[in-house]
């Protein structure tokens, strides 16, 4: 299963260090399928997206993914990819950039020919082969149709996909220089959120979050003194404040860390895919096996 991680300290820019691939914690984890790519997305001081990503096709690529990546931003998105569609290529590695926004996705969508017809001229935003980048283009199309409203764009795109495409999962994180959105739809995979006070539950601790699967680790000394909102595919520490988003729930973290949460889709997709509906490669991408 692809791993998602997002963080907002907006409006403050904070320094953080990421390790996108660590050694597995156990022999059981070592038996799992190896990832196909890693990526980290941030924003420069002027709001320009900065993406550091790499497909993992060789030993030297894995070493790249294991190196510490230090950066400064108000929002962050990290992704570890298990490919379901598209080969091992930088074009197919998350996060993707469109119109100054960053996007990462976990899940599988079918009916890509139908989706491409719906995209029309927005197909030109797609440079790779993935369902994820195509869905991002649909989100961008819907944002434009709603006058730049990102919440409405995500809602419109997800409604359309739920009605017209075979859907296994649409878990996503979308970031701008000072805002973050996250969606869990339907309840196929977990997506957790933590509203972390400055210093965490003890009031004086830096951030040091690590995936139990040995995939993504994030550390920030600055968050000993700054609050943050964190989104992740799994609980990444023992903080009791982690909450799983509900099926169909959209989270928005605005400037100043204002948080809104609401369920935008109450019903499952019209054509809900199961693991048995997926091909071997896509099935492996959703289970990590």
From TrEMBL:
GO MF: hydrolase activity
One Pfam short name: GATase_4
Classification of source organism: Bacteria, Bacillati, Actinomycetota, Actinomycetes, Pseudonocardiales
Segments of skewed composition (Gly residues): 38-47
Chain spans, region Disordered: 28-51
EC number: 3.5.1.118
Species: Amycolatopsis viridis
Name recorded for this polypeptide: Glutamine amidotransferase
Glutamine amidotransferase type-2 domain span: 2-256
Keywords recorded for this protein, A-Z: Glutamine amidotransferase, Hydrolase
């Amino acid at each position: 299963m692809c791993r998602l991680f997002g963080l907002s300290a907006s409006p403050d820019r904070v320094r953080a260090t990421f390790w996108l691939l660590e050694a597995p914690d156990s022999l059981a984890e070592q038996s799992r399928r190896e990832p196909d790519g890693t990526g980290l997305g941030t924003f420069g001081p002027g709001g320009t997206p900065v993406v550091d990503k790499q497909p993992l096709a060789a030993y030297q690529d894995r070493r790249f993914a294991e190196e510490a990546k230090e950066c400064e931003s108000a929002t962050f998105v990290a992704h570890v990819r298990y490919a379901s569609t598209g080969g091992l290529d930088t074009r197919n590695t998350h996060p993707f950039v469109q119109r100054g926004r960053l996007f990462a996705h976990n899940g599988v969508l079918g009916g890509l020919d139908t989706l491409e017809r719906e995209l029309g001229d927005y197909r030109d935003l797609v440079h790779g082969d993935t369902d994820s980048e195509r869905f991002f283009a649909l989100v961008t199309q819907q944002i434009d149709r709603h006058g730049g409203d990102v919440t409405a764009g995500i809602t419109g795109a997800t409604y359309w996909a739920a009605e017209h495409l075979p859907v296994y999962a649409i878990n996503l994180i979308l970031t701008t220089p000072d805002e973050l959105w996250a969606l869990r739809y339907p309840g196929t995979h977990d997506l957790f959120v933590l509203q972390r006070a400055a210093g965490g539950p003890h009031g004086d601790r830096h951030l040091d979050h690590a995936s139990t699967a040995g995939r993504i680790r994030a550390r920030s000394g600055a968050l000993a003194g700054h609050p943050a909102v964190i989104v992740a595919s799994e609980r990444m520490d023992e903080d009791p404040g982690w909450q799983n988003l509900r099926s169909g729930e959209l989270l928005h973290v605005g400037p100043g860390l204002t948080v809104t949460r609401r369920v935008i889709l109450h019903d499952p997709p019209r054509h809900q895919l199961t693991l048995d509906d997926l091909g071997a490669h896509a099935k492996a991408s959703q289970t990590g096996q």
